[in-house]
Every structure is written in C-alpha cells, then in structure tokens.
Design goal:
The chain has 282 residues and is of the alpha/beta class. The protein has helices spanning 3-7, 31-55, 72-79, 98-101, 107-112, 132-135, 141-144, 147-160, 174-186, 196-202, 205-219, 234-251, 263-281; strands at 59-66, 88-92, 119-123, 163-171, 226-230. Strands 2-3-1-4-5 form a 5-stranded parallel sheet, with helices on both faces. α2 (31-55) packs parallel to α12 (234-251) and α3 packs across α12 (234-251). The longest helix is centred in the first third of the chain and has 25 residues, at 31-55. It binds adenosine monophosphate and magnesium ion. Adenosine monophosphate (AMP) binds at residues 92-96, 124, 128-129, 132-133, 197.
Length: 282
C-alpha cells in the first residue's frame, strides 16, 4: 500500500473530512498483522535519520495536528522513538505566552524550525493560528483569513532553504474521541491528560472540522503537503505515518559525506599502533 499517495492532499483540492473514513484499515486486519511492516519502517527511519544527521545538509520538519485524543502524543511515542535524540527535537505549542503574543504568530514557530541535519516534530504548530484562533474568534476574520497565504509563504521559505516539510492531520471521528476520553477516565495513569477544555472543545467539533478543512485545502502544497491519516486505529496511523516518512526521506537521495581524512593513512596508523600494543603485551 502506498500510503503517501493514498492520503496526500493534492494542492488546490477541496477537503471534506466527513467523506473520509477515520476507521480505515487497508490491507491489515489488526495490529498484529501490521506489526512486522511497522517494525521494518521504524528501523529504516532510524537509518535515514542517522544519514540526515551525518550529511548535515538539510532538515525535516514533521507537523502533527489533530483534535484532542486523536493521537499526537502516541504517534510521537511509537513512530519517532526510532530516532536518535541527538538529532531530533520535539516541540509542543501551547496557548501563547504574553511574550509570544507580543510578536507575530510565526515568531515562536520560526525559532523551533530544525537546523541542518536535524528532525523537528511539532506537536501543534502555526496551524493553531487558523484553527483554535478562528473557532474561538481570538482575532478577527480579516486577520486569520490572510494567514493561509502567509503560512504558505513561510513554509516555502523553509523548503527553499533545505527543510523538508510533512504535515499530518490525525483523523478520528466523534465517537472514537468519546471512547478515548472514557479510556482516560478508566485509567488512573492517564487522568493527568484529562482537561476541562477537552469536553468544551468537543462542543465545537463541527467548527473545528470546517477550520481544518480550510487549513488543509489552502495549505497543502507540492513541497509542504498535508496528509490526512485515518486514526481510529492506532496501528493504521503508525504504519501510515512511518511509511510516509521513510518514503520521503528515501526520495531525498541523501549521502554520507566524504571522509575528511585519508582513511588508508588512518588504517595504516591503526595497524601500526595495534602491532606496537601487541609487542608491549609480550
Ligand atoms: P495540549 O496540546 O493538549 O497540551 O493543549 C495545548 C493547548 O494550547 C490547546 O488547547 C491549543 O488549542 C492551545 N494552543 C496552541 N497554540 C495556540 C495558539 N496559537 N493560540 C491559542 N491557543 C493555542
Ligand atoms: Mg490535550
């Protein structure tokens, strides 16, 4: 299954979320059957991230957006645990601080974009500025409606400068969200995740769907595409995200840099040192 092809939102298409099956399973019936493939992707992801770090030429920005309980944290846990923390950073964007609000909305975002060789994962992002901000009228429509173009220009600037961008919307349906809220209520270890606002935001389900549809439709571009990932089944989500990441990284044609030293010469020195060591041991 080519998940990238299946779930990528073509530029200029009009997304209708209620026409997309959040409970999609594809070719696997359950988690067990998907596991071997998932493990393979996770391994490959580890190698590719190492290569990106070694090459030190370009970077990867992964943006995760979704409604509460759709699995942003879970995706980071499962899929991105493959990566070496040395070259990977995760940023969660919360309600802006007074300092952040005193700047333009992209200010805090730009500071978190990945440097060459690094992967950055955004748990929420500048898209909140056309989502929660729109749903709750935090700024007037004249302001947020201009942001789609601004975001496209910002992302273009990043991709032009060597940052590869992949954006994932984790799509669950309303029943699945309620079921997950219940699981949290039933598990004391997950009580800390529950917030008053989860239920309050659920009241705005329809408004959020519309805001997401516009954000995704307006900002899925050739170089910074959106993917809508059916996420009622966590293993489908993990499999799809990991495969899309692997395919994207493979397509970059990354190479280990040429050694900065004469390897033959270093080998010769190593063998000489080894011989010396052995002689001393005698
Ligand atoms: P969580 O990801 O569950 O920790 O929640 C973070 C909260 O921060 C969510 O309720 C978001 O809607 C909110 N948030 C993130 N970015 C913004 C933003 N730019 N403006 C307003 N609220 C935001
Ligand atoms: Mg939350």
């Amino acid at each position: 299954m080519n998940y990238a092809k299946k779930f990528k939102v073509d530029p200029n298409s009009k997304v209708k979320l209620d026409e997309i099956d959040a409970g999609y399973k594809g070719e696997h019936e359950n988690k067990e059957s998907a596991n071997a493939e998932l493990e393979k992707h996770v391994q490959r992801l580890r190698e590719l991230q190492y290569l990106m770090y070694a090459e030190n030429k370009r970077s990867l920005l992964i943006i995760l957006q979704a409604l509460d309980a759709a699995g942003k944290d879970g995706t980071i846990n499962h899929v991105l645990s493959a990566m070496n923390p040395q070259g990977c950073r995760v940023y969660g964007f919360k309600t802006p601080s007074p300092e952040e609000l005193a700047h333009d909305y992209l200010w805090r975002i730009h500071q978190a974009t990945p440097r060459k060789g690094y992967v950055a994962v955004f748990n929420r992002s500048h898209y909140e500025d056309v989502l929660v901000v729109r749903v709750h009228n935090l700024v007037p429509k004249e302001v947020w409606s201009k942001r789609y173009d601004e975001i496209n220009a910002f992302e273009k600037q990043l991709t032009d400068n060597g940052t590869h961008i992949l954006k994932f919307y984790l799509h669950i349906d309303k029943d699945e969200q309620l079921a997950r809220f219940k699981q949290r209520l039933d598990d004391p270890n997950r009580h800390w995740k529950i917030s008053e606002s989860d239920y309050a935001e659920r009241e705005y389900w329809h408004e959020y769907q519309k805001a997401y549809e516009d954000a995704i439709s307006n900002c899925s571009t050739k170089d910074a595409p959106w993917f809508i990932i059916p996420s009622n089944h966590k293993w489908v989500r993990n499999l799809a995200v990991s495969q899309i990441l692997v395919d994207a990284l493979e397509s970059l044609g990354m190479k280990f840099p040429a050694p900065t030293v004469d390897i033959a010469e270093i080998k010769r020195k190593y063998h000489a040192a080894e011989k010396e060591e052995k002689r001393e041991d005698k």
